[in-house]
Amino acid sequence: MIPLKENFIVDEQGNRIKVVLDIADYNRLLEELEELAAIRAYDAAKAAEDEVIPFEQAVAEIEQSRA
């Protein structure tokens, strides 16, 4: 788990409505999300039992789907 230094913006009732992160924390979160997406794609491919494709091709397809 990524330790974050977050700050919250609250409304008049004190409810948290927004979060402010350091840019380094934000970038780490984005990297973690990309890694999670790759893991989920791998898991989905394994579960589908489709034809096997080379790793490089799979990575290229994943990258292309993110664009």
Structure explained in plain terms:
It is elongated, with a radius of gyration of 18 Å. It has one domain. β1 and β2 form a beta hairpin. Helix content is 57%, strand content 16%. The model has no long low-confidence stretch (mean pLDDT 90). Strands 1-2 form a two-stranded antiparallel sheet. It is of the alpha+beta class and 67 residues long. The protein is built from two helices and two strands; from the N terminus they run ββαα.
How would you summarize what this structure contains?
This protein has 67 residues and is α+β, with helices and mostly antiparallel strands. The chain has 2 helices and 2 strands; from the N terminus they run E-E-H-H.
Q: What is the domain tally?
A: 1
Residue runs with pLDDT of under 50 for 5 or more positions: none
Mean of residue pLDDT values = 90
Number of helical stretches of at least 4 residues: 2
Percent of residues in helices? 55-70%
Major β-sheet annotation: 2 strands, antiparallel
Strand content: 15-25%
SSE arrangement, N to C: EEHH
Strands side by side in the biggest sheet: 1-2
Specify Rg, calculated over alpha carbons: 18 Å
The N- to C-terminal Cα distance equals 27 Å
Q: Would you count the extended β strands for me?
A: 2
Structural class by sheet pairing and helices: alpha+beta
> Which of globular, elongated, flat, extended, rod-shaped describes the shape?
elongated
